[in-house]
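User: Structure tokens for this complex, please. No commentary.
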Amino acid sequence: MIPEGTQVMLIDASGKKHLLKARKQMIEVGGLGVINGDSICGSDYGDALKVGSKEFLICRPSLKDLLGIIERRAQILIPKDSFSIPMHLDLGCGDRVIEGGVGSGALTLVLLRAVGPSGAVHSYEIRKDFAAIAEKNVSLSENAGSWKLHIADICTADLEKEADAGVLDIPNPWDALPNLVKAIRIGGFVCSYVPNVNQLEATVRKMRELGLDEVVAFETLQREMIVHEGGVRPSFDMLGHTGYLAFGRKMRNLL
Ligand code: SAH
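Assistant:
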């Protein structure tokens, strides 16, 4: 049985997805109308649900589903770019990570998944209007309790000490790196995401100037393959450009 309070997703025959929180009362679902929550809480994942004349499949939303559904105002990091960040930062359960630039909170959701209920994501954001949207989106995370939002400039804020890792998605990461690198423990990684090559160059130069080791920069290209009766070929549609990632590792006492 689906417990009350869990995030549930309904998928219709065309693949359209609707998100709702399981509750034993009437639930308003955007684009669907009002449905009886008792029928959700009395079901299991994989069951079918009839709403009016339409049939839906009840399932548990994945992190990627959530990222596809959340409200976005600032440009978000998409899974192609964000999903590799926790691995490159070597994040695991219980880790403490600092994030600069929250935007819509898409990357925050990915970081929260990585650090789990015993970890902490300390996010710094200068715009209260973006932070309000992020708060709504982060509430969808099973680890929302691990999130600490700070309305402050990551370049100058008094950051947590001895954090396990740090990540920046702001226009001028080179200005924030000195403060961030100071806050990271020895052995920890920092990451920066930027959309333009000139920003990437300035970021990498700053990482080297600060004495970080293992500085590396790359972009991720993802091309879908279509498997059909006539053969197998790449998709005609491909996202040509999103942004670049740069990483560095603090291996010794710096600054
Ligand atoms: N990674 C986010 C998108 C971040 S957009 C996501 O996946 O949803 C960049 C954000 O950085 C904006 O919200 C902007 O207000 C914020 N920002 C810019 N400079 C900043 C600074 N110095 N300190 C904190 N936040 C900053």
